[in-house]
Amino acid sequence: MKLTRLNIKEFKNLINFNLDFTDKNGITVLIGNNGCGKSNIIEAISGIFRSLYLITDSSKRVDFDFELDYSINIAETNHEIKVVFTDNTFTITSNQDGNITQANTLQYLPSQLVALYSGEESRLWKNYYESFYLNYNTAIISNTKNIESSQQMLYINKYYWDIALLVMLANDIDLSGIIGDITLDTIDITFNLANINRFAEQNPNETLNFIGGLSQEKEWMSTDLEEFKTFADFETAIRMFKFLSVSYLPKTESNKLITNINLTFSNGTETNSFSEGEKKKILLKLVMDVLADDKSLVLLDEPDSHIHIAHKKQIKEMIENSERESILTTHSPTLMNVFDEHLVYLQNGEIKGRENAEILENIAGDEMSISEQQLILNTTRHIFLVEGKTDIIYMENALKTLGDAKYDTIENNFEYIPTGGASGLNLFIDKFKPKDNQLIIAIVDNDTAGNTELKKIIDDEKAFDDKDYFKLKTSANTYLLKLPRPSTITSDQYEIEDYLPRKRFLEISDDLIKTFKSLKGFNLKKDTMKKKLASKCEKGSYGKDDFLEFKKLFDLILEIKTN
Fold first, then answer.
1. Measured distance CA(49)–CA(418) in Å, rounded
2. CA torsion, points 541, 544, 547, 549, in degrees to nearest 10?
3. How many alpha carbons fall within 13 Å on the CB side of residue 55?
4. Which CATH architecture has domain 1-111+293-352?
5. What three-state secondary structure class fits 136?
6. Predicted TM-score of the model (pTM)
7. How confident is the model over 345-389, as pLDDT tens digits?
8. Range(s) for CATH 3.40.50.300 in the chain?
9. CA angle 413–419–423, rounded 5-degree value
């Protein structure tokens, strides 16, 4: 199953929303700040497929118009499916079979929608998934459905931890990358014999046969993994999952066949002792390797939450290796970085930021990693445009070392974007649009390169006659700022390094001269000096007196911010 396109006319903040999946290679990663629309897309897709799975029940239909295109393999033939829902009416067509009637719709739908949800919010579960769970459990235990049938909409959360571990370990699925080299020592299961016997008399079925084989008419079993396999007649991992889920997870005690599952491992730990990150990866492994098939659609809500940054790349591997059509949301810069080609940037219910991302990539190049770019794209803080990373080092260390409370608003409320030199300013200012109430201040050296670039942006040669900054009329809240002249400089040309005392330049020159061995090997270039100054600054070698000239720059920034 492969998604192609989704268009939503109006659902919450998704207005005339169009999402193209064709270049995502089966994995779509939704990113953006809280309220940008990520969760609304997940909810809309859940609502759409609930409407389709229950197409004959008009009361279960979504309350918004939409179009959905996807491809699915049916009987070795690929079908391009188009679903149009408008004015509470479905029109469904296949490129192979033409118009599809409501009675025949199910065979053209994904085998199931599997959602892995990380939060405590139950609205998605209550509104879209719970009824499928309750109806499926009732049908299986009452023998009106075969265990091979699909639940269609499956919602996985923390209640599946023990089942997930037991299913995968019993089926020899490798979990060493998640739980290490520990092994499962003891399996303790408590049964409700009264319920087992009651259902066996009323509706004998495969689930009861499975549970009966485990219980051996006893209320409790304690065994190891190998012995458990001899008792459990399950054939496949997915069958075992269904048997255990139907028996253990019903909330109503009168429907429970299993009342408790407890797993103890070789190091003495139990399931609850695993970290939140480990448990999240266990459930993701269950979804991608056991539950979802090639006709499934998988929805993953922040699958990397609670997972250590060093292990986040495992998330990509687990999702990619499964080759299941997946949509996931994330805030993680690391996950954004590894999934770069799959990203969809959202802002206030609209797909935006791809242009901004391309601008950042073009102007920053190697100056910023993809994860750093995503932090900038998603920030609501103000932005400094600076010529290079060394400018960031100077400004950040000056603010920190000066320790002046009046500059706290600068230190705490601005992000930095290195433009790779003055030449990147024009592209950024022309194309990159600030968010509401977001201030962008472009800081340029007062040198030939900086002044040349400023002339490309503004025509008025006298713009900086009265002060060292200028507000652009063409871009709200965007200012150009030329470095104010340091008191130690009389020249018309100077750079941010000139805010440091002369003695710091002389020290580096002396250090370089001391390494002199031959004229051929001697090197005292401007870039070398800049790198040495930045390195010393970053290491904390300079004190408050070394940064006093930076106050002129910071005071000017405060003036802009106040105005």
1. 45
2. -160
3. 21
4. 3-Layer(aba) Sandwich (3.40)
5. helix
6. 0.70
7. 887 888 865 556 665 565 555 555 555 665 666 677 888 888 888
8. 1-111+293-352
9. 135
